[in-house]
Write a structure and sequence with these properties.
Layout (H helix, E strand, L loop, with lengths): L1 E2 L8 E12 L3 E2 L7 H24 L4 E14 L4 E15 L4
Parallel strand pairs: 1-4
Antiparallel strand pairs: 2-5, 3-5, 4-5
Length: 100
Amino acid sequence: MYWHRELPPLDGEAVHDDVIEADSDRVPGMIEREGEVWQRCSALLMESTRLRLEQEVARLGGDYAHISDEHIESHHDDAKDESWLHGRFGYVLYRRTGPK
């Protein structure tokens, strides 16, 4: 997986572009942007995203993916007083054109 400014290997051919969405775990209370809880939830969201993207790459028969954009926002369930981060990630799927 390659993020934003990281360039994927030159031996790849772009074969598919799509979007995946992922969520962090829920935490009690509100999430303050860039606070300690935000950082913890962000790490969980990135791990969830990595796992989802690995599954998609395998499912679609690719070799790697390049994340081209992301949008992360916090959500809050007033009834349960829980918050979580939700991410939406645009990516391009690549297949190696050279020897594997």
